[in-house]
Amino acid sequence: MADEDTPTEVLDLETIRALPKVALHDHLDGGVRPQTMLDIAAEVGHQLPAGDADSLATWFFEAADSGSLVRYLETFDHTIAVMQRAEDLRRIAREFVLDQAADSVVYAEARWAPEQHTRAGLSMAEAIRAVGEGLREGVRTAADQEQYITVRQLVTGMRHTDTSRDVAELGLDHAGDLVAGFDIAGPEDGFPPSNHAAAFSLLRENLGRFTIHAGEAAGVDSIRDALVQGGQRLGHGVRLIEDIDDSGDLPSLGPVAAYVLDRQIPLEVCPTSNLQTGIAQTYAEHPVGTLVELGFNVTISCDNRLMSRTTLSNELHQLVQAFGFDRVQLARFARNSIRAAFLPHTVAEQIFAEQIVPGYAG
């Protein structure tokens, strides 16, 4: 415990920006630079809702800030429209890496759905290769700027389509293109993980890594289903709070919350995005405070940096302000995240020892 005369560290945004961070839940199509959208849209003839980068960024944030996941997802019509050519996927993947590195992210996973990027004639395999090339280019460019980051891609099946097994198989076949795992995304309510049991079975049989969006737009039953399918991480998972009764002197956990806590299943919590889709009204009311207090394995990410007009540094800064988290807790988030990363153990531990631990010392 610090001496009462020792000044409390001020964790302002700039201080947090310099700390090493890990981004596990960040959608490639949710982090496109507005100017990049404008450039590509002009080439491919896609009409955007605004004509300059600042106005376009504002449109995305306001359109996503509706309290509805369905409305939130509609904004992706525009980003996906400019991600149909191989050169555009390479550019956006490269910029994904550079934007993460500029925010002192030392490891990031870019998730995206290959089936949504075949309108201009690319196959899903060609799209995966293009993203892999772009990620590698970004890592090299960042290193030239003395920003060292490791990046992987997660291929995603869409909950409301029937291609998830094919996508999972492609992911397994393209590990050499930096594919580290699989996910399902899209409208959660009414499209349970069990609809994609064949994909998850294939992944389990091949010892593949996968996370499952659950506990965002649907509640505890969705989380239970994700766990039954073998989800190794939970995308969001914050509606676990509905399985926790904290009205008494001691919190009482229901069976799903207890299972997640006891097995320390990582939660990919995205605070600003959760506010936009109606999980809470303010950061101080967000379930993350209770989840951290009870010892859940919480990681923090952005979800969609464009739609939430955010960075990982900003997400952490908002939580510092809302809950008084200190440097130790931010280090714990980074540790939780890198140890939940879909990386070989030795690589994850090297990043932890060489980048994260020194970054939080002092």
Describe what this molecule looks like in 3D.
The protein contains 16 helices and 10 strands. With 362 residues, it is α/β, with parallel strands linked by helices. The protein has a single domain (22-360), classed as Alpha-Beta Barrel (TIM Barrel), CATH 3.20.20. The strands form 3 sheets. It has a 4-stranded parallel β-sheet. Strands 5-6-9-10 form a 4-stranded parallel β-sheet. Helix 6 (86-102) runs parallel beside helix 7 (124-144) and helix 8 packs parallel to helix 9. The two termini are 15 Å apart. The model has no long low-confidence stretch (mean pLDDT 95).
Notable traits:
alpha/beta, four-stranded parallel beta sheet, TIM Barrel, single chain, 362 residues
Q: Please tell me the overall pLDDT.
A: 95
Number of strands: 10
Spell out the CATH superfamily: Metal-dependent hydrolases
The termini sit apart by 15 Å
Secondary structure topology:
Blueprint: H1 13-18, E1 21-27, H2 34-44, H3 53-64, H4 69-74, H5 76-81, H6 86-102, E2 105-112, H7 124-144, E3 150-158, H8 164-173, E4 179-185, H9 197-205, E5 211-214, H10 220-228, E6 233-236, E7 244-245, E8 252-253, H11 255-262, E9 267-269, H12 271-276, H13 288-293, E10 298-300, H14 312-323, H15 327-340, H16 345-360
Parallel strand pairs: 1-2, 2-3, 3-4, 5-6, 6-9, 9-10
Antiparallel strand pairs: 7-8
